[in-house]
Design goal:
single chain; alpha+beta; about 40% strand; binds zinc ion
Length: about 80
């Protein structure tokens, strides 16, 4: 487990305007991040400062070929099992 990875995941998400609520190290690499985020559509309720973000949803973030991959998880995960 690497706390650096978790810090990076959180930092990256927050840079994109997401709100990170929880981070769990993922078995097999990467991390699970519970976050609220912007979808990027300018007309959406999430757009602009103070917009209502989507979520929270769990995402699995991991690195592959130096790129960060992200997939959305089901609403509940058991990161520790
Ligand atoms: Zn949106």
């Amino acid at each position: 487990m690497s706390t650096k990875t978790i810090d990076e995941a959180q930092e990256r998400a927050e840079k994109k305007g997401a709100e990170v609520l929880e981070v769990e190290p993922a078995r097999g690499g990467g991390s699970y991040v519970l976050q609220k985020l912007k979808c990027g559509k300018p007309s959406c309720r999430c757009a602009g400062p103070g917009g209502e973000l989507h979520g929270p949803h769990w995402y699995h973030n991991w690195k592959m070929d130096r790129k960060t991959k992200r997939i959305k998880q089901c609403s509940t995960i058991d990161a520790k099992s």
